[in-house]
Design goal:
This protein has 320 residues and is an alpha+beta fold. The chain is built from eight helices and 17 strands. It folds into two domains: 105 residues, HemS/ChuS/ChuX like domains (Heme iron utilization protein-like fold, 3-Layer(aba) Sandwich); 152 residues, Heme iron utilization protein-like fold. It is 22% helix and 34% strand. The strands form two sheets. It has a nine-stranded antiparallel β-sheet, covered by helices on one side. The protein is globular.
């Protein structure tokens, strides 16, 4: 069994350490061509795709379509449900192939990592699917170095910018027309969401009690109301609209399910919960957004297809 040579920085994720202990044996390093490998996934048939974030995990059964250059998003529409997956391809760096079960990683799966060795997605071949395509893909993309990974060090952390005045922040917030505009506003604040939300008035962002999220999810399930849950990491953003199952609790984890998609939210990671109001699609959009203790984004819950129904649900459920 080969021993992996770890870089001094950054600290490896637990999943990467598990794979490192089995590198060259149960785990093989593939060429640093994640985009080419993503394009080849459609040949593997039915897949179980797991997306990792700091406060959640999403697993879904799907068939990867044949991706073409410049189209780094996937959309699936079913009865009363819709899933859109957007890939930030510049963040995808390296790929590991898991041949036999390793830790929590199943056999015949691929683990995609960002530039710092943090897991983005795991793609496993469903049982009785894929044929020899998985083995052919691994052989075709095998890296000549099976002893170490090439992971760049984390760059210097940027200092926070001084926020603009209240009137400028609220003016630019109100002028945002879509998520891209709002993302640009956040970028000007170095993505310091908690600082931005705390700087504007309650009519834009208002902090609510964390237990509101559990109440809203339970009430939505009782009313059979579809909601949209968005989660993500540096390389993937998932937005899923569905009438989610009643929340099932396991310790601090809240589990939701719909038609093959399984979501686990770690409530212990949620430090603050904000009710946001911002322009979108010709109307004011209301959302609940969870942040961790450092003020970083965890997930967003918003309306399904009916904004008015969603606002009514919030009116009956928000704990101030």
């Amino acid at each position: 069994m080969s021993v992996m040579a770890w870089p001094m920085a950054p600290a490896a994720s637990p999943l990467l350490r598990q794979c490192g202990a089995a590198l060259g044996d149960r785990v093989l390093r593939l060429q640093d061509e994640p985009l080419a490998i993503l394009k080849a996934l459609y040949r593997l048939g039915s897949l179980v795709v797991t997306t990792f974030t700091s406060g959640s995990r999403v697993s879904q059964n799907m068939n990867y379509p044949a991706l073409t250059e410049g189209e780094w998003w996937l959309e699936s529409v079913g009865e009363r449900c819709r899933l859109r997956q957007t890939l930030k391809v510049q963040q995808w760096h390296s790929v590991l192939a898991v041949l036999e079960p390793t830790g929590n990683l199943p056999a015949r799966s691929l683990l995609f990592l960002d530039h710092h060795g943090q897991p983005l997605q795991q793609v496993a071949v469903a049982p009785n699917s894929g044929g020899l395509a998985f083995e052919e893909l691994v052989c075709a993309m095998l890296h000549p170095n099976q002893r170490s990974l090439s992971l760049p060090a984390i760059g210097p952390r940027r200092d926070g910018n001084r926020l603009d005045g209240l009137s400028a922040l609220e003016r630019d917030w109100e002028a945002s027309q879509d998520d891209d505009d709002f993302s640009r506003l956040l970028l000007r604040c170095n993505d310091q969401r908690a600082m931005l939300y705390g700087a504007v008035r309650d009519s834009f962002a208002c902090q609510v009690r964390p237990e509101t999220l559990a109440v809203v999810l339970g009430e939505a399930a009782d009313r059979d109301a579809a909601t949209t849950l968005c989660v993500g990491n540096e390389g993937v953003r998932l937005c899923m609209t569905a009438p989610w199952s009643s929340p099932r609790w396991q310790g601090s984890h809240c589990h939701l399910a719909h038609n093959g998609a399984l979501v686990s939210l770690d409530m212990a990671q949620m430090h603050t919960l904000w009710r946001l109001r911002k322009p979108g699609d010709g109307q004011v959009v209301t959302a609940l957004e969870a942040l961790d203790a450092d003020g970083h984004w965890l997930w967003t819950l918003s309306a399904g297809e009916d904004e008015q129904q969603w606002r009514g649900l919030l009116r009956d459920s928000v704990v101030g």
